[in-house]
Specification:
heterodimer, A: 448 residues, three-stranded antiparallel β-sheet, B: eleven-stranded mixed β-sheet, two-stranded antiparallel ribbon, 17 helices
Chain lengths: 448, 429
């Protein structure tokens, strides 16, 4: 009971101290819920900058050469023509429902098997990512089909659910057989709050590490350190499903390069492998194709996308759901509070208590979620705790969305049921808890 | 354990499987992602044997590419740009469509929106009007405008968001429809006065509708679908067509050099079909269908084919002088906006309590402000032609720029003169 009161208090504190006095959140509930500027951007100049960044984010990029030089440079190999294609309404992408359906907001990472459990080499021909499209004169790399294996799971009180486990099959190879290749399918993630994530106090994240599970709670998160060899420094990985990108600019520039084929100062090379000669010889849209100003504009836009304010926080069902969330141990990784750095920029981001519901650490999520593909410091079964803020609005902003890294889950409950490894106990608790508690838990998540 | 790992590693390994390739149809478009996404997904689901390869270009770029001897391999062109389709047809680059036209009117009002010879067909139309937030408008005591001329009044000062035609392409037809409806000089004089009440909106910034939602303006000039999709996405706004407006059609056509003519006709057929047209009602699109039967699914959407909105527009005239108009707009309005605003604001202020003598002086100042040194150009006017082709020819670009510069100086002198006269009037005891 005391715990429940404490949680209710925490909820009130969260909803009031985190959100009420600041100007970082939006109360918008429409299809634009994840597309609003933070309210503290209120000058014409700031709103103009935000709109300019959005314009580039929504831009359909053009194959070079073009009369519109400022927007050319798409490809030579690419997954989509615009950022918006994979992040409709800045929300989540989805997986195809079967092998005949195209990947519209999903892509497949590639590498070759090796001995190192934390790192794997990109495919020598196809590189680190399968690009399904190419400019004229350059062969596309092929297609990825998603096949599913279905199973049924029974929860308490006889509730049943069908789960689908994806496997990827690469077809129509453009540069010879794929051979032995490791794959990892990824849907476009939701994009809100990225500016705040970048400004989270590093010590906060480090304080939650427990790689050897010394406190024996079954949770052993660890930071994915990103090594900057040139500067001989290391940084906490914060972005990406494997927490293997440290800064927002790098996250944006890497997506432009790998997904759209646009080079930038951070990623000046076209995404062609050494044997893709037509790709190497294709006309470039400039050096780089995405100018520093354009990168900065998109960065500004994503940095200042408002975080959705949690809703219905005083509703009994939501209060109960929050308690269930804690009792099931979800908060061990989906941390409800986290502090930004005191030196964060802009000043409006400094010393803020925010609620992304993540610890930004890598956790072992079990064999079922493992892609068995080591990825820049993370094992196949390790995934960054996904932030949950705004997750309840996912279906409002997108026509159809998916959950988890590969979009296999079509609902939040399915996503929970795929949790394994360090989250196994929480997942089992959800299976056995009374249905009313499960419903309350979902209600709580939908209010985030 | 090792066995398990090996098993999972092997299931992660991939072996090539030779799935049958669908026909690839190359579609050049200038539509934004939401339109492309909705249409492409629905089409490919309906026709899994055809895969769309989207080649995105702005209309002028698309035209320049497609008019080249060895152009990109494009099967279908699909975009809102009458000029592009007329030009492609004139250059023999389009093939006649083989589709069923039943239920698809060629005329909107008295204006043809599709090619009578079937080289291209309208896929949607978009009309011009104003967007506003009813409650906020009411709070400020401003009446909902029902004709463009309502926005000339002093009460609209700083309350309008007006797109600049040289930067926001949809504004070209917005400007010209008033010139066609009101006559050359009268139309321009009305734009001068409206612009003096406006915030000018350029490329890459906020949409005009957003200027209203952000409180920067009370009404915005826009096209119906910008407003309607904004409303469908949660904005608390309203859109109205003034009594007289214009509708701009978008088209689809098949290139005569298409390598997949059969698949191309299937795509065209889909876009104008009942299911294809219904997709225009998606909240992110909200475009006006060209198949009138679809309007029964959207009772709140105004059906321009029902004849309730006056639409009369000569596309040929508008197209031929669009660049010229944009240059004139910049010379008379964009480049002189501060002076133009200042002059009209002072004029309205003085007009409020003016005595008979002052009224006479103000009438004279108004005449100065509204002098219009540019005659309505004939379609073979050299400067008009130079401005129309300025993007393709450096010499023509120089000529057009010289014309703009001279004109801008002329307007500046005129506005300076008006401001001096206003200052003299103010300083009189």
């Amino acid at each position: 009971m005391i715990r429940l009161i404490a949680l209710i208090y925490m909820g009130v504190v969260l909803s009031e101290s985190v959100y009420a006095e600041d100007l970082l959140e939006t109360t918008e509930l429409s299809r634009r819920a994840l597309s609003m500027p933070m309210p503290f951007l209120n000058s014409d100049q700031q709103l103009g900058q935000f709109a300019a960044g959005r314009s580039l984010f929504n831009q359909m990029w053009v194959i070079a050469p073009s009369n519109d030089e400022e927007i050319d440079g798409l490809g030579p190999l690419y997954n989509s023509i615009s950022c918006l294609a994979c992040h409709a309404g800045n929300g989540r992408g989805r997986a195809p429902d079967g092998p005949t359906e195209k990947m519209r907001s999903m892509l497949v990472r590639l590498s070759i098997p090796g001995e190192n459990p934390f790192h794997s080499e990109p495919h020598p021909v196809y590189g680190g990512q399968l690009q399904e499209f190419a400019v004229p004169g350059v062969p596309a790399e092929g297609r990825a089909e998603v096949h599913y294996e279905y199973s049924t799971i029974t929860l308490s009180e006889g509730e049943t659910l069908t789960l689908r486990k994806p496997s990827i099959q690469l077809v129509n190879p453009g540069y010879g057989e794929f051979g032995e290749v490791l794959t990892s399918a990824r849907i476009g993630p939701a994009l809100v709050g990225m500016g705040l994530i970048e400004m989270i106090d590093k010590q906060e994240i480090l304080s939650w590490q427990d790689p050897d599970d010394k406190n024996a709670d079954g949770i052993s998160g660890r930071v994915n350190w990103i090594i900057d060899e040139a500067r001989q420094t290391r940084h906490v990985g914060r972005f990406g499903y494997k927490a293997n990108i440290a800064t927002l600019d790098e996250q944006i520039a890497s997506a432009f390069q790998a997904d759209l084929g646009l080079t930038s100062a951070l990623f000046p090379e076209e995404n062609c492998s050494s044997v893709q000669t037509e790709c190497q010889q294709a006309v470039s849209g400039g050096e780089p194709e995405l100018t520093a100003e354009q990168l900065q504009a998109v960065s500004f836009y994503l940095q200042f996308l408002a975080v959705p304010a949690p809703r219905d926080q005083s509703e009994p069902e939501v209060i109960r759901g929050r308690a269930v969330f804690d009792e099931a141990g979800c908060t061990a990784c989906h941390r409800p509070q986290i502090k930004t750095s005191s030196t964060a920029k802009p000043a409006a981001f400094a010393n803020r208590l925010i609620a992304p519901y993540s610890d930004f650490l890598l956790h072992d999520m079990g064999e079922e979620l493992s892609d068995h593909r080591p990825d820049n410091g993370a094992r196949g079964s390790e995934w960054r705790t996904s932030p949950l803020w705004g997750i309840g609005l996912a279906e409002k902003v997108g026509d159809k969305v998916g959950y988890l890294h590969d979009g296999r889950a079509t609902t939040l409950l399915e996503a929970i049921l795929w949790h394994g490894g360090e989250a196994q106990k929480s997942r089992d608790a959800v299976i056995t808890m009374p249905k009313t508690d499960r419903d309350a838990l979902l209600q709580f998540l939908n209010a985030l | 354990m090792l066995k398990n790992l090996l098993f999972f590693a092997l299931t992660g390994l991939l072996i090539f499987s030779g799935a049958a390739k669908a026909v690839t149809l190359n579609v050049m478009t200038s539509y934004p992602q939401p339109v492309v996404m909705v249409m492409q997904q629905a089409f490919e689901e309906a026709h899994p044997d055809i895969e769309l390869n989207i080649l995105w270009r702005r209309p002028h770029d698309a035209l320049s590419v497609l008019l080249q001897e060895e152009s990109e391999n494009v099967d279908v062109i699909w975009m809102p740009s009458v000029r592009t389709f007329l030009s492609l047809k004139a250059h023999g680059k389009l093939a006649q469509l083989k589709i069923n036209r039943e239920g698809l009117p060629i005329l909107l009002g008295e204006t043809a929106i599709s090619d009578p010879e079937d080289y291209f067909i309208a896929t949607e139309v978009a009309g011009y009007g104003v967007f506003f937030e009813p409650e906020k408008l009411k709070q400020t005591g401003l009446a909902v405008p029902d004709q463009w001329q309502d926005l000339l009044e002093a009460e609209w000062q700083d309350n309008i968001a007006l797109p600049i035609p040289s930067e926001v392409s949809f504004a070209n037809m917005l400007i010209d429809q008033l010139l066609q409806a009101e006559g050359w000089q009268s139309g321009w004089n009305q734009w001068q006065q409206i612009a003096a009440n406006s915030h000018l909106m350029g490329r890459g910034g906020m949409f005009t509708t957003e200027a209203v939602l952000a409180g920067q303006a009370k009404v915005a000039f826009t096209m119906d679908f910008f407003a309607a999709s904004s409303i469908a996405n949660g904005a608390n706004g309203k859109f109205i067509y003034p009594k007289q407006t214009a509708f701009n059609p978008a088209h689809i056509g098949i290139l005569s050099a298409a390598t997949q003519p059969e698949a191309a006709n299937t795509f065209v057929d889909f876009i104008v079909s009942e299911p294809g047209q219904s997709l225009l009602l998606h909240p992110d699109l909200r475009k006006l269908p060209v198949r009138p039967s679809v309007y029964s699914q959207a009772p709140k959407m105004q059906n321009p084919f029902a004849g309730n909105i006056r639409h009369q527009y000569d596309y040929q005239t508008g197209l031929q002088r669009r660049e010229f108009n944009a240059v004139v707009f910049d010379a008379a309005i964009t480049l002189q906006h501060d002076k133009l605003k200042q002059a009209w604001q002072q004029w309205h202020q003085l007009q409020q309590n003016a005595d008979a003598d002052q009224r006479a002086a103000l009438a004279e100042i108004k005449t100065v402000l509204q002098q219009w040194p540019v005659e309505e150009p004939a379609m073979d006017n050299v400067i008009l032609q130079d401005c129309a082709q300025r993007h393709d020819d450096d010499k023509k670009q120089q000529n057009c720029e010289a014309f703009k510069s001279e004109l801008a100086q002329s307007f500046e002198r005129q506005y300076d003169k008006a401001l001096t006269m206003l200052a003299q009037l103010t300083s009189k005891p």
